Amino acid sequence: MLAIMVSTDKHLDYVINMTSAAYAKGKRVKLFFTGKGVLLTMKPQFKKLADMASVSICDASFRANGLHGRQGQVPGVTPMNFTSQARNVEMLAQADRYLVF
Amino acid sequence: MQHAAIIVKDPQQQFEGLRTSVGLLLAGISVQLFVLHHEIENMDEVYRKHMAYLDENGGMRFTNNPRNAEKFGFTMMTIEKAAEKIRQADFIIPF
Amino acid sequence: MKTLHILRSEPDETVEKLTVVISMEDTTSVVMLYEDSVNWSALVDEIFENDRVICWW
Predict the structure, then answer these.
(1) pTM of the model
(2) Using the 8-state DSSP alphabet, how is residue A66 labeled?
(3) What's the DSSP call for residue B13?
(4) Pick the CATH number of B3-94 from 3.40.1260.10, 3.40.50.1110, 3.20.20.70, 3.40.50.150
């Protein structure tokens, strides 16, 4: 399994390219959005990621970055996808490889 | 025990790096936090609490910025020495 | 140990210093994502072929 922590809002293209390439090779991909990375959940292209990977979003970061109340606007996820840092650590422990974007 | 090196260079990610460090400690992973170049910008109550948790649970804090050492108790270390420690880590996570 | 360094942006002095020391005693390779010609499919293979992957700033 390939795990990717996204902690900045600078590299959505990298995240999409990496996830697409891994998905095409049959790899399981898990994504964790935290810090400013949560801002990417508001981009239209985010739906693509939710279709190819298991997505988790740090709820505390989501609120801290002014997105409180906008959970329903994130395409392809449910309230279950909003989690804590514990999910990130779980993902790190389970992953064959762990990337940071 | 697995060992993580959290390296914070982006001042905007100083708290995010600390928060991740605490999360890893809670999961039983040993953590060394390296804050490079910049002074901690927002040493508020929340940052202090997380830092105290890190200290109380065996996490280690290093910096190459003397102000972080003088004001906040980080251990001073050159980049070269830090790199030697980082090299030993199972997980290297730059912020 | 085989280590893959992934550079998200052009390396500054800090990244250069860290990667030099971290790469000692390792077999290393470097992929620069900021260059146009990234082969993402090949990069996935490289990620799994290496023992350790570090995504720098």
Answers:
(1) 0.94
(2) I
(3) G
(4) 3.40.1260.10
Alpha helices in chain A (DSSP H): 12-24, 46-52, 59-62, 85-94
| Residues in C touching B86 (Cβ below 8 Å) | 18, 21-22
The answer to whether A33 and A45 are in contact (CB under 8 A) is: no
Residue C1's pLDDT is 87
Q: pLDDT of B32-52, one tens digit each?
A: 999 999 999 999 999 999 999
Biggest CA pair distance of chain B: 32
Asked if the model's pLDDT at residue C24 lies above 90, the reply is no
ipTM, two decimals? 0.92
Count of all residues that appear for chain C in the document: 57
Mean pLDDT calculated for residue range B1-27: 95
How many whole angstroms separate alpha carbon C50 and alpha carbon C27?
9
Q: Residue C57: its chain B contacts at CB < 8 A?
A: 9-10, 94
Cβ-based neighbours of B19, under 8 Å, separated by 6 or more: A85, B50
